[in-house]
């Protein structure tokens, strides 16, 4: 069975060396969506072998971000640091089978070799001094040197694959020297012990043992792929299908990175974006389904494939994200929004009852918001006294309008408390005072809502307790 015909198994293999941002987590979304689209399995593997730079906080952001976006793995998280013994076992097996060998070249010798090659205008590469070949006599093993272990890479010919994004990619084997698959053992180990297995090697062992059929990852790994394919084949396996995703650029056209100001994924949650909106936005950042811009998770799963991945770098665009997010806000269930807004209000010390009224408020205001935090900004007016600007008040709550406000308040005090009756109260007051709607509605908005613009004022007022409206209208007169 080839990788392409086996049941689909994909993986996300982040290195927890910085806070995961949107550009990185797209490399989780696509394998997740592909596995879901094909009824396959999605594996999470944390590549934490760079112990200096890996951190638990970074792992937590990965796990939290994935949970928030609903990218649940079916297997894992597996941690590479917990699999070291298994990698060493495979190195030992490769030594035994003659697929790898010990190299005793010291750093000084390697440096000298490199200098000679550079001087001769050659590409620096390991020269095979310790590579065993039939009939070849190896140099005497130097005393006290801890060897590295190198993979016996094929000589001559080339290696290629049909990348789902890049098409056919080919590397000449000339370019690939014998990769170090294990670094020297530590001082507390016997000289010849197998030290720390290296990055590319661990990836291969894991991809084999986790039975990965489709490797979907960033194209910064393209140069690793030919080496990984050689090791896979040496171990008796056919390579998986590869899809190398183009980089995500930030708004300035630089590679998206924490250093260039990218936010951790969890920041979008804290800013109140709906997860399905972020999933939708990210899905479109390098993949398309016709002209569809707005889609649900279910549609994404139904549609996702590897045949419509974009070939050029995608650029992050916050304005577009906000637009997508506002479309999802419109579609979101009001009770669900109410629960989210309730939490957002609580975070600012505003105790709003999580009841049906809150859901009705969400329904009225959600069209104007990209996030639940923005929705909470709006809804705060129902629970705390708004603070309209003094200048605006002076401009719109003029002496001329005060008697109209007074008359309106008196009518509202008598009205049935619903939007229709509130509208009648406005109409009667306008007719009586010879005013046009904006002249009255604007000061009412300022006094009651603290803003000059709101949805239809009668619908908004109906959501307040009558007493709140009356006291805000009367307070400043
Ligand atoms: N750990 C690598 C990274 O975070 C990904 C390796 C892979 O997907 O093969 O860039």
Find the count of extended strands (DSSP E, 2+ residues): 13
**CATH C-level of the domain at 265-382:** Mainly Alpha
Query: From the 3D coordinates, which CATH architecture of the domain at 265-382 would you assign?
Result: Orthogonal Bundle
Q: Averaging pLDDT over every residue, what do you get?
A: 95
Determine the N-to-C terminus distance: 82 Å
Largest sheet: 4 strands, antiparallel
Gross morphology: elongated
Content-based structural category: alpha/beta
Can you tell me the residue ranges where pLDDT is under 50 for at least 5 consecutive residues?
A: none
Bound molecules: glutamic acid
CATH fold category name of the domain at 265-382? Glutamyl-tRNA Synthetase, domain 2
SS field, number of helical segments: 19
What does this protein structure show overall?
There is one protein chain. With 477 residues, this protein is an alpha/beta fold. Among the domains are: 265-382, Glutamyl-tRNA Synthetase, domain 2 (Orthogonal Bundle); 390-474, Orthogonal Bundle (Arc Repressor Mutant, subunit A). 45% of the residues lie in helices and 12% in strands. It has 19 helices and 13 strands. Strands 4-5-8-9 form a four-stranded antiparallel β-sheet. It has a three-stranded parallel β-sheet with strand order 1-2-3. Strand 1 (9-12), helix 1 and strand 2 (41-46) form a beta-alpha-beta unit. Helix 8 (275-284) crosses helix 10 and helix 11 crosses helix 13 (372-379). The longest helix has 16 residues, at 22-37. The chain starts with 8 loop residues before the first strand and ends with a helix. The chain binds glutamic acid. Glutamic acid is lined by residues 13-15, 47, 203, 217-218, 221. Glutamic acid binds at residues 13-15, 47, 203, 217-218, 221.
């Amino acid at each position: 069975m080839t990788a392409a015909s086996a049941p689909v198994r994909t993986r996300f293999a982040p290195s927890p060396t910085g806070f995961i941002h949107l550009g990185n987590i797209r490399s989780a979304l696509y394998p997740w969506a592909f596995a879901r689209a094909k009824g396959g399995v999605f594996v999470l593997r944390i590549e934490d072998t760079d112990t200096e730079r890996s951190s638990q906080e970074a792992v937590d952001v990965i796990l939290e971000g994935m949970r928030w976006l609903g990218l649940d793995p079916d297997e894992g998280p597996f941690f590479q640091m917990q699999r070291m013994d298994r990698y060493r076992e495979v190195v030992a097996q490769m030594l035994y089978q003659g697929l790898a060998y010990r190299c005793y070249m010291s750093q000084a010798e390697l440096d000298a070799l490199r200098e000679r090659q550079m001087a001769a205008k050659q590409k620096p590469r390991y020269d095979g001094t310790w590579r065993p070949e039939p009939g070849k006599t190896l140099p005497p093993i130097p005393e006290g040197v801890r060897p590295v272990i190198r993979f016996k890479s094929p000589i001559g010919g080339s290696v290629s694959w049909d990348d789902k994004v890049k098409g056919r990619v080919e590397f000449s084997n000339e370019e690939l020297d014998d990769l170090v698959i294990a670094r020297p053992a530590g001082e507390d180990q016997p000289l010849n012990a197998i030290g720390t297995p290296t990055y590319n090697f661990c990836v291969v062992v894991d991809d084999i043992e986790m039975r990965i059929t489709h490797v979907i990852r960033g194209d910064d790994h393209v140069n690793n792929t030919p080496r990984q394919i050689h090791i896979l084949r040496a171990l008796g396996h056919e390579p998986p299908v590869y899809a190398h995703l183009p980089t995500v650029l930030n708004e300035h056209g630089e590679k998206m990175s924490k250093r260039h100001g990218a936010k951790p994924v969890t920041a979008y949650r804290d800013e109140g974006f709906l997860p399905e909106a972020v999933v939708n936005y990210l899905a479109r950042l390098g993949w398309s389904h016709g002209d569809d811009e707005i889609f649900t998770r279910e549609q994404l799963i139904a549609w996702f494939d590897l045949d419509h991945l974009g070939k050029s770098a995608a650029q992050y665009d916050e304005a577009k994200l906000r637009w997508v997010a506002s479309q999802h806000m419109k579609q979101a269930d009001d009770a669900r929004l109410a629960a989210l807004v309730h939490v957002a209000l609580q975070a600012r010390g505003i105790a709003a009852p999580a009841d049906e009224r809150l859901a009705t408020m969400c329904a009225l205001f959600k069209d104007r918001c990209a996030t639940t935090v923005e929705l909470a900004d709006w809804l705060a007016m129902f629970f705390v006294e708004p603070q309209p600007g003094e200048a605006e008040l002076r401009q719109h709550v003029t002496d001329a309008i005060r008697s109209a406000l007074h008359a309106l308040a008196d009518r509202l005090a008598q009205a049935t408390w619903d939007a229709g009756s509130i509208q009648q109260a406005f109409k009667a007051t306008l007719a009586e005072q010879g005013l046009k709607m904006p002249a009255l509605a604007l000061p009412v908005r300022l006094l009651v809502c603290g803003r000059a613009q709101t949805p239809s004022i009668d619908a908004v007022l109906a959501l307040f307790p009558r007493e709140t409206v009356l006291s805000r209208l009367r307070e400043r007169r």
